[in-house]
TrEMBL record:
<feature type="binding site">
    <location>
        <position position="147"/>
    </location>
    <ligand>
        <name>Mn(2+) 2</name>
    </ligand>
</feature>
<feature type="binding site">
    <location>
        <position position="238"/>
    </location>
    <ligand>
        <name>Mn(2+) 2</name>
    </ligand>
</feature>
<keyword id="KW-0464">Manganese</keyword>
<dbReference type="InterPro" id="IPR023696">
    <property type="entry name" value="Ureohydrolase_dom_sf"/>
</dbReference>
<dbReference type="GO" id="GO:0050415">
    <property type="term" value="F:formimidoylglutamase activity"/>
</dbReference>
<keyword id="KW-0479">Metal-binding</keyword>
<dbReference type="Pfam" id="PF00491">
    <property type="entry name" value="Arginase"/>
</dbReference>
<dbReference type="InterPro" id="IPR005923">
    <property type="entry name" value="HutG"/>
</dbReference>
<keyword id="KW-0369">Histidine metabolism</keyword>
<feature type="binding site">
    <location>
        <position position="145"/>
    </location>
    <ligand>
        <name>Mn(2+) 1</name>
    </ligand>
</feature>
<comment type="similarity">
    <text>Belongs to the arginase family.</text>
</comment>
<comment type="pathway">
    <text>Amino-acid degradation; L-histidine degradation into L-glutamate; L-glutamate from N-formimidoyl-L-glutamate (hydrolase route): step 1/1.</text>
</comment>
<keyword id="KW-0378">Hydrolase</keyword>
<protein>
    <recommendedName>
        <fullName>Formimidoylglutamase</fullName>
        <ecNumber>3.5.3.8</ecNumber>
    </recommendedName>
</protein>
<feature type="binding site">
    <location>
        <position position="236"/>
    </location>
    <ligand>
        <name>Mn(2+) 1</name>
    </ligand>
</feature>
<dbReference type="InterPro" id="IPR006035">
    <property type="entry name" value="Ureohydrolase"/>
</dbReference>
<feature type="binding site">
    <location>
        <position position="145"/>
    </location>
    <ligand>
        <name>Mn(2+) 2</name>
    </ligand>
</feature>
Length: 309
């Protein structure tokens, strides 16, 4: 069941039909709607709790919908709300399976999933849906993140999703293609860098993600996109500087400027290869005057503007 009451905001009726905002454009996901963008919430921070982080990201999807609701709507793909997948019983694996099923369903209906997390445990559930929907395609994972999230742990956490994806690829004979942009050396042990090398992952440090380096970054990203059939884009909001994104479990002391993230994510959206995207780790409990919510909503809005089918 989708609660559309949260989609409210300013109405500029006097300015005509072209003065719409998102809350006036979003519809509950219909059975036979035209291909569009399907928003799915993953109300879960069990992985963050297990990873000893600051819980609260389960409230992210609803807060981000509120932040998106009042943004100006410019003609794009139809916007749909496919409701939330909730983890209320600490059974993370079951919640991830349900998210995967929801993702696969919206793709089968012709839509592109835009998942609002939740902790970065969102990524494994999203991957399950994408891999089921694209069984014969080489899926590349592009992760904007201060962390590799390649941890080995007795149970799944917000720090293990890409290790889980790598293991899933190995089980099913897939090539693990992973590019992590914005890695902070201060936040990743040497062991994690060693794991990344063993898995043939690619990365770029946060110190090499400045605006004046954008042409070089775009070249690296283009080579990666050329090597895969479709792309899964995941944006861990803790990649942004703490001043731009205070509302995460682990705010960044350095980070990658939102303008750089937006430009590169836009390139991915315009490539024609984007199969699914998510924004994760937003924690409204630690936001300051809605700074984080506005930044996250801006990135989601920007992605929608670049998508055409």
């Amino acid at each position: 069941m989708v609660d559309m009451k949260i989609w409210t905001g300013r109405v500029d009726a006097a300015e005509g039909e072209a003065a719409k905002r998102w809350h006036q454009a979003v519809q509950a996901l219909p059975e036979n709607g035209a291909p569009g963008i399907a928003i799915i919430g993953f109300a879960c921070d069990e992985g963050v709790r297990r990873n000893q982080g600051r819980v609260g990201a389960a409230g992210g999807p609803q807060t981000l919908r509120k932040a998106l609701a009042n943004l100006a709507y410019h003609p794009s793909l139809p916007l749909y709300d496919a409701g939330d997948v909730v983890c209320a019983d600490s059974d993370l694996a079951a919640a991830q399976r349900r998210l995967g099923e929801r993702v696969a369903q919206v793709i089968a209906a012709g839509h592109l999933p835009l998942v609002l997390g939740g902790g970065h445990e969102t990524a494994y559930g999203h991957w399950l849906g994408l891999s089921a929907a694209h069984p014969d395609k080489r899926i590349g994972v592009v992760n904007f993140d201060a962390h590799f999230d390649l941890r080995e742990a007795p149970e799944a956490t917000s720090g293990t999703p890409f290790a889980q994806i790598a293991a899933d690829c190995a089980r099913h004979g897939r090539v693990f293609r992973y590019l992590c942009l914005g890695v902070a050396e201060t936040a990743n042990t040497q062991a994690l860098f060693d794991t990344a090398r063993t898995l043939n992952a690619e990365w770029r440090l946060d110190t090499d993600m400045n605006g004046w380096q954008l042409a070089d970054i775009r070249g690296q990203l283009a080579e990666f996109l050329d090597s895969v059939d479709v792309v899964y884009l995941t944006i861990d909001l803790d990649v942004l500087p703490a001043a731009q994104m205070p509302a995460v479990s682990a705010p960044a002391g350095y980070g990658v400027d939102i303008a750089v993230v937006e430009a590169l994510a836009g390139r991915i959206a315009k490539s024609g290869k984007l199969a699914g995207a998510d924004l994760v780790e937003f924690n409204p409990a630690f936001d300051i005057d809605s700074h984080g919510a506005k930044a996250a909503a801006r990135l989601a809005w920007s992605l929608s503007r670049h998508l055409r089918r």
